[in-house]
Design goal:
Number of strands: 5
Number of helices: 16
Structural class: alpha+beta
Number of domains: 4
CATH class of the largest domain: Alpha Beta
Distance between the termini: 41 Å
Largest sheet: 5 strands, antiparallel
Shape: rod-shaped
Strand content: 5-15%
Mean pLDDT: 76
Low-confidence stretches: 1-5, 21-63, 107-131
CATH topology of the largest domain: Bacterial polysaccharide co-polymerase-like
CATH architecture of the largest domain: 2-Layer Sandwich
Length: 432
């Protein structure tokens, strides 16, 4: 107990001495009054100033620097932002519109063909007769954010009429004579667009510094988007029409060549149709064969009743020889291996030329049908731009949001200031 009282008495004496030294500002005697154990752990003191005194001075001055930086880098910019938003910043008006791209339904005439309706036709009836093309909607979205839109809508002069007015504040105004890159960046700051992938609806928000300018700009965006949708498949349809036209030209030339060859064959053989001549020769052979049969029957009758040298039998035999000769000549006209003038050879060449003509005529008819279909596809509209929500004239400005903008700026600057202050304090501790 005695040792505890002595230790507590010494601690009380040290506390009293520390209070007196601090109150006098004599920091040098502070180190002398400390116990030997603590004094051994402190760095050496020279020049009448202790390390503790050196630490107290930066700490006191550090609070002053923190307050000054807080004022100049946080509070003052926040105040300027508040005054700018309240007194000077131009009012912004936003126009919102929603678009989507649709394709016409496939029309199937099942009543005349007798075919059962397909699943796609049934779905098209329940879905209102059109299907959404999300990919084409994304094409419109990329077009609205591209440099091509700036050129199509009127270029630099168009945007200067809307965003370079004297009634717009300096920081919001578009500088006249900006290059294309800066103009494109400025335009994307005033445009907000997104696509809902499930429904395929494109939501567009465009802002300007007057209600009329915002509405005029939104309507121009709808017009250009519709032109783009019409041109998406136009090139493919034009290419299809050109290919169909080329096929018609090729098939018509082939048909003309086939008919020319057939005409040359007819002129060379002095025949319109070898098959019809072969038919007539066959009929002649059949008739002569019947006469031959009658003569042979008559000769058989004469052999039984008259002598072989009778005048009647000689006449019959002469007629029979003549008929046999005519039959042989007719058959020689039909088929003859020794000459190419036979009708069999002519019929083979004629049938080949006739087949080529029929084939060329069929190709020509198919090409004509394809051309008519391609022309109809070119004339009709394949895709439609549907305006789900039309742009309307805004009645109240949406910017500036004075308190929201000021609060956000204050939070951002305060966070950055706190980070730098903590980093500075940590760096100072490392140096001590």
């Amino acid at each position: 107990m005695t040792e505890i009282k002595q230790i507590s008495r010494k601690i009380g004496n040290w506390t009293t001495s520390l209070r007196n030294i601090v109150s006098r500002g004599d920091v040098v005697n502070l180190s002398k009054s400390l116990p030997a154990v603590i004094r051994a752990r402190l760095p050496s003191v020279g020049g009448g100033a202790s390390p503790a005194g050196q630490r107290l001075q930066p700490a006191a001055s550090g609070m002053g620097i923190g307050a000054k930086t807080l004022i100049f880098f946080v509070l003052l910019p926040t105040l300027l932002m508040f005054l700018y938003s309240l007194l000077w910043e131009s009012k912004g008006y936003v126009v919102e519109m929603r678009l989507t791209v649709r394709a016409p339904p496939e029309q199937k005439v099942t009543a005349t063909t007798g075919e059962a309706p397909t699943m796609s036709s049934l779905l098209s009836k329940f879905s209102g007769g059109s299907k959404s093309t999300v990919q084409d909607t994304f094409i419109v979205l990329n077009y609205l954010k591209s440099r091509a839109l700036i050129a199509d809508i009127g270029g630099r002069a168009y945007f200067e009429r809307i965003y370079s007015g004297d009634d717009i504040d300096y920081f919001s105004r578009l500088d006249r004579g900006e290059n294309m890159e800066d103009l494109w960046k400025y335009w994307n700051k005033h445009l907000s667009a997104s696509v809902e992938t499930i429904s395929g609806i494109l939501t567009i928000q465009v802002d300007a510094y007057s209600p009329e300018s915002a509405l005029h700009l939104a309507r121009d965006l709808v017009r250009l988007s519709e032109n783009l949708v019409n041109e998406i498949t136009l090139r493919g349809r034009k290419d299809a029409l050109q290919r169909a036209d080329l096929e018609v030209s090729v098939s018509s030339q082939r048909l003309a060549d086939a008919r020319e060859k057939l005409l040359q064959f007819r002129n060379a053989n002095l025949l319109i149709d070898p098959t019809s001549k072969a038919t007539s020769i066959g009929e002649v052979i059949a008739k002569l064969t019947l006469e031959k049969i009658d003569l042979e029957s008559a000769l058989a009758t004469f052999n039984g009743s008259l002598s072989g040298d009778s005048p009647s039998e000689r006449i019959q035999r002469s007629k029979l020889a003549t008929i046999n000769k005519q039959i042989a000549e007719a058959r020689a006209k039909l088929t003859n291996d020794k000459t190419n003038d036979a009708l069999s050879a002519q019929i083979a060449g004629y049938e080949r030329l006739k087949l080529e003509e029929q084939f060329a005529q069929t190709l020509y008819a198919i090409a004509q049908t394809s051309y008519q279909k391609a022309r109809q596809e070119l004339e009709k509209q394949v895709l439609y731009l549907v305006v789900v929500v039309a742009p309307t004239l805004p009645e109240a400005p949406t910017t500036p949001r004075v308190f929201v903008s000021t609060a956000l700026l204050f939070i951002e600057l305060a966070v950055v200031w706190a980070i730098f202050m903590l980093a500075g304090a940590a760096f100072s501790d490392q140096l001590v």
